[in-house]
Amino acid sequence: MSVNNSSETKEKSKQRIIKAATRLFAQKGYDGVSIRKICREANANICMISYFWNGKEGLYQGILDDLIERQTEYARSFIDLDEELSLLSKTDLLERLELVLDKAVEMLYGGFISRELISFLIQEQNQHRIKLTSPLLEYVRKIIAAVLNKDVQDKEVIFKTLFIVSQINSPLILTALSLDLLKQKDFVPEDKNIILSNVKTYVQTLFKKEA
Fold first, then answer.
1. Which of 32, 50, 64, 148 could form a disulfide with 28 if both were Cys (CB 3.0 to 4.6 A apart)?
2. So what's the pLDDT on residue 3?
3. pLDDT at residue 128 above 80?
């Protein structure tokens, strides 16, 4: 077997493990899942856990790391995350923010994140086992700070970022008030358009004085 084929095989095993672990952790929690169970579900050799993540705790963090890596790669396809925002006008900043929100809705409601991963992330909020460091979220916070002429650690900046992100995420999280009422198993393109329209209206209202 060539080196390239070997690397490809390992990467496929890695992704199967991540997928299986995400589903099992979401269903049973961290303590309710064994490494052996994950590997059986993923049809992968148990030594792969040590090879990639050095154990169960590393795998748990690895699920989020994989998400952030994919999210960041996606973000860099349409925005410069390292851009010096202080050089931009407020109009340009708000245009950047609108672009990010547009792409974020497309990402979240276009199959980028599985339902199991959403459940995993919601569960993790109560456990604090892993660290959430998203360059895309940091970029959004920096935009908001620049628009308001405040520090990124300012409370108003932090809460405005939270409220905007919540506008995007809430239909995915509160499915009893979205999909269940709509009698749907998943979101359709029309839903995505409505969500984006509402998010944009909220942001425009939020920064009306700053535009």
1. 32
2. 45
3. no
pLDDT reading at 92 higher than 90:
yes
Q: Which residues contact 204 (CB under 8 A, 6 or more apart)?
A: 211
Nearest to 147 by CA among 164, 166, 127, 169: 164
Residues 6+ apart with CB under 8 A from 17: 38, 39, 42, 44, 48, 49, 52, 59
Asked whether the predicted pLDDT for residue 192 surpasses 90, the reply is yes
DSSP code, position 30: S
Q: Is the dihedral of CA 18, 25, 191, 103 positive or negative?
A: negative
CA-wise closest residue to 103 among 77, 84, 70 = 77
Q: Can you give the pTM of this predicted structure? A: 0.84
Token duo for residue 201: 């209206």
